Amino acid sequence: MRSQGAPTITISSMLDTFNIEELNARIRAESSFIEKIRTEVAKVVVGQPYVVDRLLIGLLANGHILLEGVPGLAKTLTVSSLAKALNLKFQRIQFTPDLLPADLLGTMIYNQKTMEFTTKKGPIFANIILADEINRSPAKVQSALLEAMAEKQVTIGDQTYKLDNPFLVLATQNPVEQEGTYPLPEAQVDRFMMKLKVGYPTPEEELEIMRRQARTEKSDPIQPCVTLEEILRARKVVNDVYLDPKVEKYIVDIVFATREPLNYGLNELRNFIAYGASPRATINLNLAARANAFLNRRGYTTPEDVKTIAYDVLRHRIIPTYEAEAENITPEDIVRKVLNAVNVP
User: Fold this and answer.
1) Percent of the chain beyond pLDDT 70?
2) If one looks up domain 1-30+241-345 in CATH, what number appears?
3) ω into residue 345 within 30 of 0, thus cis?
């Protein structure tokens, strides 16, 4: 099955459910801070609009993000700059081989004067957590973080503490150097809404980076431009973004094509996919597509919204076979073939 022409969607069917103009007006009002954030981050970060927009999608859709790229591509700078513009509590945690779960979550401390234990909360109690080089720490630390991501709570001693809202984990990893690393198991990687591939800047961007950063002292021009209340209101509006049943089926078809490629005419992939995408892919395609529509000031999603974020949602959820690796078939190649094969509504 091949897609027919450019993706389109009929809005008239929505009018029976709600007033699309009213929703569009709400989105225009509640998304006014988006351009302000982009402007503030651009004061420090050159280029990277793709990364900034995907981080905003994660914020709006309440999804954690894994950033993969070689050192020096401003992954940490982009995340910290976004946190400053959002005016949220930010913690950067450098993952190392000797890091312990207590260093991340917190621990119980005995007070000799009162003869009582008191709780010392760890750095995970923040709105935005930058887990720098997450694959540098052993499985116990990774599991402690990923459990907090899933449950949005932490248990220290016999007390359970809710984490702040919003709570967003942005983890980085280096895809090149693998010595002394502890790669995340597939089941843990699956908990990230998106995996971003951060690439090199263009020559023009690198020239601008050099002019800005080649200084012995650096200024911090970023100013907070959004409140916590605005972020939480925007999240509620994202829940109201309309998703047509045809687009819902399109999402399901994409995910099932990674599991049952033969049913979608993808005979060439039958020996290249060991495991297809999990149900979390379906959920996150839905959420991320609606958040992408919100970024574009629309009260409804289109198939193009789904295609725009499909690579980021699916690339870490498709496990290729050894045969695929031998023929240099990457998960991105598989996603591209799936998107070309599944009929667009």
Assistant:
1) 93
2) 1.10.8.80
3) no
CB neighbour list of residue 185: distance below 8 Å, 6 or more residues apart: 139
Return all residues near 107 (Cβ < 8 A) that are at least 6 apart.
119, 120, 122, 156
Domain span(s) for CATH 3.40.50.300 in the chain: 36-212
Mean pLDDT, rounded, for 219-238: 86
In this prediction, residue 179 has a pLDDT band, given cuts at 50, 70 and 90, of low
Cβ neighbour number for residue 83 with a 10 Å cutoff: 24
Q: What superfamily does domain 36-212 belong to in CATH?
A: P-loop containing nucleotide triphosphate hydrolases (3.40.50.300)
Does residue 166 have a cis bond before it (omega within 30 degrees)?
yes
How far is Cα 342 from Cα 23, in angstroms, rounded to an integer?
A: 30
What angle, rounded to 10 degrees, do the helices at 32-42 and 49-61 form? 140
* Model pTM score: 0.86
Q: CATH 1.10.8.80: which residues of the chain?
A: 1-30+241-345
Alpha-carbon span 233 to 317, nearest angstrom: 30
N- to C-terminal Cα separation, the chain: 12
Sequence letter at residue 23: L
d(CA 209, CA 44): 9
Report CA 298 to chain centroid distance, whole Å. 21
